[in-house]
Structures are given as C-alpha cells and as structure tokens.
Amino acid sequence: MSFAPTLRPHGDLASLVAGSLNRKSRAWNLLRSQSETVIQPFEGIELGMSGDLAGFEREFDEIPDNTTDDVRLALWHSKMKHYMILSSAGKPIYSRHGDLSLINSSMGVVQTIISFYEGQKDPLLGFTAGNARFVITTEGPLYFVAISRLGESDAQLRSQLDALYMQILSTLTLPTLKNIFVHRPSTDLRKPLEGTESLLSSLADSFTKGSPSALLGALECLKLRKSQRHSINNIFLKNRADKLLYGLIVAGGKLVSVIRPRKHSLHPSDLQLIFNMLFESGSIKAGGGESWIPLCLPAFNNRGYLYMYVSFFDKPDDENDGDSSHHPARSHATPSIPEEPPEGEEESSETRSNSTSAPPPPPSSSSSSRPSPQSADEEIAIILISADKESFFSLKEMRDKLALSLQKSGYLSLIRSACRQGRPKISSISTSSSSTAHQEIQLSHFLYKSRANVQFCMPSLEPHFSGWEPERQIARRKLMSVYHQLHASMHAKHSHLKVLHSVGEDVASLAWITPVFELYCVAGPNASRAAMTQGANRVVQWAKKEEERLFIIGGGVF
Amino acid sequence: MADSGNAPKPSSSVKLVLLGEAAVGKSSLVLRFVNNDFQENKEPTIGAAFLTQKCNLPTRTIKFEIWDTAGQERFASLAPMYYRNAQAALVVYDLTKPTSLVKAKHWVAELQRQASPGIVIALVGNKLDLTNDEAGSGGDGESPGVDGEGDARKVTTDEAKTYADEEGLLFFETSAKTGYNVTEVFTAIANAIPETSLKTARGPGAAHAAARSEEQRVNLNGARDQNAKDGCAC
C-alpha cells in the first residue's frame, strides 16, 4: 500500500494519525518552508528515528540488576549524559547511571587520565571522544566529570558540575569536607554523603532534561498582581519570628514571596538546591508532616549550617480536579490548620482575568489536558530558614500564624489559583497598545531573563513541549538544546553578540541581549526573520509592562 | 482512631522520638501510624520530620508529637536535640540486618545515659514481612515460601527479646508494609507512659482550643509540666 502524505495535520492529531506513515521527504520539507501556516518547531519527531536524541525517552530508566554485565554495560553506554564524582585518590563517590561496581573500571580510567595531567601541573579541562564531550572540574580533593552527547558548551557543563559540588557542600560544609580528606585522603565519601544520592540525581536529571533556571542562573516567580504580592509580603513580614533569617513561599517550584534581612540577599544557586530538594526529589514531601533540615547554603556561607523549616500545604479537600483523591486524609498531619473553606471560584477567576491583559484561556481545557503528574506543580510550601538549630517551634508557630492569615485573607486560594493557572500561554502575550494585537504571535516559546532581578519567565510549555509521551520529551529536550546553543553563542568569550538569528532544518531561533534583559525565542523553521523580530519585540514590551507581576522586585525586607 | 469525637477524656501531649540506623523503616512506621499508608522505596529522610497523631486509650487521649529523625551518621550529632525532654523513644532495627541491632543498642545506651530518666523506650524490629513468620506476612496473601526459603530474618526474636528484657524495654516486631503490630507499638507506649510524667501542652501557645477546653474540664495538675522538665538529666 502506498500512501503519500500531502497534508499534515497539526498538534496532537499529527502524532495520532500521521505517525510513522508520515516520514517526510526532502522535497516536502522544502515545500513546507514556503507554507503560509505556522509550523511548530521539531514537528518531525518520530520514534525510532536515528537522530541525536534517539532513545532519549529511556535516558532516565534504571539499569536493571538482573541481566548480564555485558547487557548492563551496553545500557550504560547508551545513556546520553553521565555525571561522575570521585576522590582524587580514585575512590568512586557518585555516578548517575549504573552502580559503582559496574563502572568501577571506568572510574579507574577516568582517575588515571585526570591525575596524569594533574601530575604535569596542566590540569585536564575537557576532551571529545566520538560525539561525547567530557568536561572535568577539580574541587579540592574531588574530581567531577560530566560526559554529554547533548551538545552543551563546556561552560554550561562546568556550571552543572559546580551545582553538584554545591550539593555536596550543602550536605557537609566546606570545612568538614576538607577535614575528612586532610585526615584520611583515602576516605570513602559515600558514607558521609549517604542518603543524598537522590538529591544529586534529581539535580543531574534536571540538567539532562534541560532546566531554564539552571541555564540562565535565574529564578522563576509565580505571576501575581503587584498589590497582591505586596500584601502577601506584608502578611509574611508581620508574622516574622525573631529567629528568622530568610522566609520563602514557594508554589510549584516558583517563588511567591521572599522576606530577608536588608543586608543579605538570596543567591540563585542556593535556591536551586532548596528547590531541588523540595520539588524535584521526593525526600521531603513523601513523609508528610513538617521537616527540620540542617543544610549549608554555600553561596551564603559555605562554612556552616542553617536550619530550614519546611511545611507543605495540604491540598484542599474540596478541589474537584480529581487530584485530591491521591492524598486522602492528610489533613491531620498538621492539626493546627483548620480545614480550608470552599474556594470562591468566581473570585479567583476574576482576579485571574485581571492579571492578564488578554482574555484568559478557558481554565477547564488546560486542566483537563494536563497529565496528572503535573499536580506536583501546584504544591505550595512555606520555607523558613534560621541560623538557630533550636528554633523549630518558634518557626512552626510563625508558620501556623502565617498560614492562618494567608487563608483568612484569601491569599492562599489566590496563590492556588495562580498556580493552577500555570504559565501564560504564548498566544495570550500581546500588547494592547499595538494595533496588531490580535494577530497571532509567531513564536512557539521563549525565555526572558530580567538581568537586574536575576529572574526569568517563560510561557507555558503546553502543548508541544510538555507531557510524558516520548515525542514530547524529545521535543522539550530539543527546545532546551536550542536554548543552550543560543546561550552558549551569546556568552562565548569575546563574541560580544547582541542579536543572533539562526534557522535550522526544524527550528528558527532568535537571541537578543541588552543590559536589561536576555531573550531567547524559538519558532517553526518557516518563520521569517521579520516575524520573529516582531514577536521578540512584543515579548519585550509585554515583559516590561508586566514586570512587577512577573518578577519579585526587592521582596520583603526587614 | 484519630478522631475521638467529643469524648471528655483528658488529653496529653507526649514527645516521642524515633532513632535507628538508616533504612530500617523509621519513617515508614510513622507513615503507617499517622496516615495508614506505605511507600515502596521511600527516599531517605533529610534532617528530621515532625508529625502528630492521637492515640485513644480507654481513660485518656495521648497526642503523640513525633520526631522522625534521619538515620545517617552525619545527623547523629543532632539527635540530642530531638530526644531531650522526650517521654518516649522508638529505637528501630531491621530484623534482616544484624548490624542495625548493634546500632539500636548504641541508641538505647545513649538514651539511658542522656535522655530523661523516665523515658519509655520501645525496641522495634521492623520488616517482619520479609520473614516467614505468619504474623508479619499475613494480610495480603503474599506469604513467602516455606521451609526457610525466602526468609530473610537474621535477628531472632529471642535474641532481641532477651536484650529488651534485660534493659527494661518494650519489644515488638512489626511490618510497616503490612501494618502488622504498628499501632500496637504506639498504644503500648501510650499505656506505659507514667501518669505523672504527662503534661497537657508542650509549651505556651502550642495548645489548641480543643485541647484547652478539655484541660479546663479535667483537673490536671498544673505543675506537671514543670516536673517533667525538672526530671531531665541534662
């Protein structure tokens, strides 16, 4: 049977109907670039194709114990990204894939190569073997190795390794780490780090999936009206305990409110560690209850511990989105918080439409198309950090008061609905002042970093770049790879680029850097440069207009 | 069992700490007791978790304030913070792992040396579901093979029981996975807490309105709180 695909349906339909029948010819691709319709980037992703990312959907699968070593080694080699940590004495400490016995010999080779160069006083920074890039960093007694076939730049891989090092410091502090190796250079660091493998792995996996936050070294905030954020800050400040150093309200990995002393700000790399612990690895949430965690925030002070109180809000029982059934009867874990009253749905939808200038997309469709694991994106946590290890109960008391006033004032449900609303849809981003306001924006996605605020924002990844289907995972990784390439080009030493427009076979992209912002945009391969520039301008205008909603400027200071 | 309705029973808070080697199932026991839930391959606790759960006795209600501590060695120096003033301790070992009993004995010794003199200690051998004992594997029909096959037990009941008796500890073998004996441990602890060491609230501002009204209804000795603190060895 022959079947010549002449028409290609868009979006979900494409993967459903066209599937493997639609292996596109060169001619088709050429023809398509003349097309008037908007083509999404990476439309041609098909499973089983031989491409850069073939098999990426299996990247995070564990290597099974119950097969032969040959099979396990083959699986290990098939991974696109490896992170290894070893001591300078050659003791393996951590590997993302494979248990240490499987890869002991690889670790040995790595150690031999690194120490050869160390011995020549010419430390090895990186090398390429086949299509894999090896990058090495040395931090005192520790070697960090990243092996990547995902095309990141050396600087990007280096900053990923740095984050892993920060996680180790966060567990041990720098003086402790040094002490351990001063006294016994051959120490097995796995014992002191016991239980933190999952933190290292969730950090590593966020890099492998591609994390805009890590790439840009910036944080993402929950979009709220300025007056609302101001009121939340004030409630936060009013309930402040004496022992408090930093206070954070975080919803689904996005910052809602921060309070801090005037002379200390919070470093993004420290917040990355906290967010990773709370939202990426399951360590804190799984047990329920409230947590009291000693941790070192290396960018704040790598010599000592702070103590972090964490409490997640229970899901409201009356939520009818089907998620609440997964967590029955959790409410008695924090008995001091009364049951939440039914949420004023009309109130929240009103504030919703106020907060975006464009009419909001119907919330029902966005929540129904959302896969259930995304409900983790809606978890709200209060994080209170103190230097006093005995301050748990005073921080708990603060939390209880804070939670009560947030709830009474309606701000808790406001945060919830802002969170459920998710990131703005790219189609909703337009400026009302422009005469072409209702002309559809040509971009598929963008990252906008406000340099002064060290924060970024981006539109929703749905529908093309989110989801658990392999095609979607690969599309998301491709998108992140484009951002990484743009970022690397813009930040290459001596390049001094301000604008970069690049067109590839399946994507067109634009980067634009000014002293105020960094903007990275992506569109389908047939998007014209004019259309992209227009889109970029619109995003910049939008971000300027919405600045105080998208970003936390200053925060609550005491 | 968490909800006693409006029964006018005296209610007291009891501070309880869980100690034991990493991965013996401390958090799983708490999760079973508090939420009646179990998670396979639970990730390690970081620092400590604080949870509360009520336990109804015929004559009174005990509100456990539970400190579920992380078992890793690097957190050991923080343990005194959690067992200080604790009225009860659950020292947990994994009955498929003899070294975890050794560690449990160290914790018992440290508690006897440093914690409040009246502290009620329960020694708990967890993961009974991995043995052939009928009690532990009962429930979901998933009983291991017969004649020692699939029996991962490495610490005999006798050995642990003898030690517990010598040291005057409560002793239980449990399965957080099946739920076997879990509530029994906490109930036994609640029963073993001497009446005199009970206090009505942890501290100022901590009592809830409900607890307060019960407090007013029943004449509890106001000086008890003081007594409990005086009794501390440190």
From TrEMBL, chain A:
One of this protein's GO BP terms? protein targeting to vacuole
| Gene Ontology CC, one term | Mon1-Ccz1 complex
- Which subcellular locations apply to this protein? Endosome, Multivesicular body membrane; Prevacuolar compartment membrane; Vacuole membrane
Q: Where is this region: Disordered?
A: 318-376
Every copy of the FUZ/MON1/HPS1 second Longin domain together lies at: 243-314
Looking at the record, the residues that make up the FUZ/MON1/HPS1 third Longin domain are 443-547
Q: Where is the FUZ/MON1/HPS1 first Longin domain?
A: 81-203
Main role?
In complex with CCZ1, is required for multiple vacuole delivery pathways including the cytoplasm to vacuole transport (Cvt), autophagy, pexophagy and endocytosis. The MON1-CCZ1 complex acts at the fusion of vesicles with the vacuole, through its regulation of the SNARE complex during the coordinated priming and docking stages of fusion, and particularly at the stage of tethering/docking. Required for multiple vacuole delivery pathways including the cytoplasm to vacuole transport (Cvt), autophagy, pexophagy and endocytosis.
Spell out the family assignment given in the record's similarity comment: Belongs to the MON1/SAND family.
Q: What is this protein called?
A: Vacuolar fusion protein MON1
From TrEMBL, chain B:
Where is coiled-coil annotated?
A: none
Could you tell me the keywords of this UniProt record?
Nucleotide-binding
Region (Disordered) location: 132-153, 204-234
Q: Output the SUPFAM superfamilies linked to this UniProt entry.
A: P-loop containing nucleoside triphosphate hydrolases
Q: Which domain of life is it from?
A: Eukaryota
Identify the InterPro entries for this entry: P-loop_NTPase, Small_GTP-bd, Small_GTPase
Which GO MF terms are attached to this record? GTP binding; GTPase activity
Query: Keyword Nucleotide-binding: yes or no?
Result: yes
Pfam families xrefs: Ras (PF00071)
Q: What is this protein called?
A: Ras family-domain-containing protein
Which organism is this entry from? Cladorrhinum samala
